[in-house]
């Protein structure tokens, strides 16, 4: 029985790693990596480096049309591009109000980062979550357990 133990541990580790990889994959109908690259190129971005799918969005470092290096996020469902230099039409108070209206409580650590609003809050079920919101209209882009 002892000689099977390393195999079981190895199999368990492989399954755990594949589960984590699946959790960070875009949905089947979402933009693929080549589509994101084409979209960014079409919008004037060049030198698109380190394109990864993280936190429910495609993230990359790229050179903008004006020659600046920026962090960029792309919503895989809507094709919206969020650059770190993007200016939000919402204030921190607006974000808190939108999250409260959506049923979140204990909203804190509200920050405008990488072109999107990020906040931590408590859901109605008591779980702590991190929420990413659109900088223009405040709709929720992504929610993950904190």
Q: What spatial form do the alpha-carbon principal axes imply?
A: globular
Please give the largest β-sheet: 4 strands, antiparallel
Flag low-confidence runs. 6-23
**Termini separation (Å)?**
39 Å
Q: List SSEs in N-to-C order.
A: HHEEEEHEEEE
Beta content: 35-45%
Quick check: average pLDDT?
A: 83
The number of helical runs is: 3
Widest sheet: strand order?
A: 1-2-3-4
Q: Tally of extended strands?
A: 8
Structure class: alpha+beta
Oligomer: single chain
Instruction: Write down the Rg.
Output: 19 Å
Number of domains: 2
Helix coverage percent? 25-40%
Could you give a short description of this structure?
With about 150 residues, this protein is of the alpha+beta class. It is built from 3 helices and 8 strands, in the order ααββββαββββ.
Please characterize this protein's 3D structure:
There is one protein chain. A four-stranded antiparallel beta sheet has the order 1-2-3-4, with helices on one face. A four-stranded antiparallel beta sheet has the order 5-6-7-8, with helices on one face. About 12% of the residues have low confidence. A hairpin with a 5-residue loop joins strand 2 and strand 3. It contains three helices and eight strands. The longest helix is centred in the N-terminal third of the chain and has 19 residues. The radius of gyration is 19 Å and the shape is globular. It folds into two domains: 51 residues; 54 residues. It is of the alpha+beta class.
């Amino acid at each position: 029985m002892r000689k099977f133990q390393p195999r079981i541990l190895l199999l368990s580790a492989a399954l755990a790693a594949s589960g984590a990889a699946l959790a960070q994959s875009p949905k089947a109908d979402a933009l693929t990596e080549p589509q994101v690259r084409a979209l960014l190129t079409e919008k004037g971005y060049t030198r698109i480096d380190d394109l990864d799918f993280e936190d429910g969005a495609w993230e990359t470092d790229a050179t903008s049309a004006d020659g600046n290096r920026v962090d960029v996020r792309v919503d895989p469902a809507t094709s919206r591009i969020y650059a770190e230099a993007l200016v939000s039409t919402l204030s921190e108070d607006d974000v808190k109000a939108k999250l409260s209206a959506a049923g979140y409580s204990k909203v804190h650590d509200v920050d405008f980062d990488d072109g999107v609003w990020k906040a931590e809050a408590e859901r109605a079920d008591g779980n702590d979550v991190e929420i990413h919101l659109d900088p223009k209209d405040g709709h929720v882009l992504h929610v993950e357990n904190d």
